[in-house]
Each structure stands twice: as structure tokens, then as C-alpha cells.
Give the backbone structure.
Amino acid sequence: MPALQTTDFKQVTLSGVSRYYGRRRALCRVNLVLSAGEIIGLLGPNGAGKSTLLAVLSTLAEPSHGDVRYGDFTASAGGAQLRAQVGFLSHDLQLYPELTARENLEFFAGLYGLDRPAELAHEALAKASLSERADDLVEGFSRGMRQRLALERTLLHAPRLVLFDEPFTGLDEASCGALVTRLQQLRTARRIVVLATHDLDVVSQLLDRAVVLRMGRLSELGSTGSLRERYRAALAEAPRGRRPGPSGPSGSGPGESPA
């Protein structure tokens, strides 16, 4: 099957993006520019809107208001060609445990419409340091092994924009180190990498810059102090435009996010 044609881009621009789930506001007027060759940390407490923002960037969710442009294209205008330039590794690794590592990769290569799925699977297994386990069922893999396999599955079609949702959760030190190295390689390859994480110590020397979401509102972190210190300072600031919900100032009202 011939490979999908792709609509390449070097920048993603979010302008005034809001997302509602019924009356619940998950994102509020988010403005952000993402550029090739950088790793952006997406920080914030649980329920801040990080998963929703990743869903919007991945084209899995549409903004209720505002605009997301991938170079010169919106998701709807770019269609399948544009979506072929997006890779998303969620915390749910989306592997088939009853298949082998090789079978998983060949299956997804086929879904992506890629040529030479067997060759691509072979190369991906080597990058994941799983060549010797290629024909073992994934159900017997450790979390770290599954993570490496899922990452290479996400990268099979060489996406320009690569999104990660809590990729370090449950990994041991060696697996974290291997993932950091792979992320650095993506930066060198001029990918746009967005990383939602709570593991500040792991990513403090990895990120080119970081933004923080709180109650659906996004702001850039300051430049003074450690990543953890800057993050705490950002959380200590009262969100602008916050209005109490029906439960009062500390209650969960319509302004709170479900994601």
C-alpha cells in the first residue's frame, strides 16, 4: 500500500482556543506557539486541562472556540494528510497484549498506510532495544518495555508533532534515561514535542521551555529559579478571570475542568 502523502509544517499555533464539555470549561482562551526542534513541557495539577489540550492538538477533539493551525492548515483543511503528521503516546499505551512486538508494529504500520511494514518494524524494534524480544507476546513485557515499544509505534510514520501524556509514569531509572535520550533525538530531528508530565525532576534539564495550565488557563513559566520553583510560583498566582462556581470560591463549579 502506498504511503500517505503528508502536509508538513514547522509550527503549530493556537489562537484563543477554548473547549467546553457541556457547561464545564476545560480550556479558556489558550494562546500558544509550538516550533520545530523544541521540547515543550505542559505542566499543571490534575484537572487543569492538560489532557484536553493534548486531545485538541492531536485533532481528536475540536476547539469550541478559537483556532489551531498546523503551518498554513487547520485540522479540517489538512485532513488525513495533516493527521498523518501527528503522533500521540497516551498513558494508555494502546498495544495489543495478545500480539508479539513485531506483530504490533507491522499492524500499525499497515494502519498508517506505510510501505515496507516488516522492514519498518525491524528498524523500530532495534531502536526500542527489543530485537531479541521481537516475537514474544507483549503481555509478558514490563512497563518499560511496553513504553519503548509504544513510543516506536507512535513514531513509525515519522510525525512532525509528537505528543506525550505522562510518559515517565511507572518507569524505572534506566527506562526514564532511555526515554530522555529518545526525546533528545526527536529534538535533533526537528520534531515538535509536547510533553505533559508531573515528573519535574526528570525533565528539568530536558525541556526547552514550559507552560502551565491551571483551571484551563495557560501561562508561560518564568525564567528565574529551578523548574520546580517556577512551577510552584505559577500555581501560587491566582488565575486571571476566575469566577467562583455555585459551590463558592473553593467549590467545583462550571469554571472547573474535567480533564
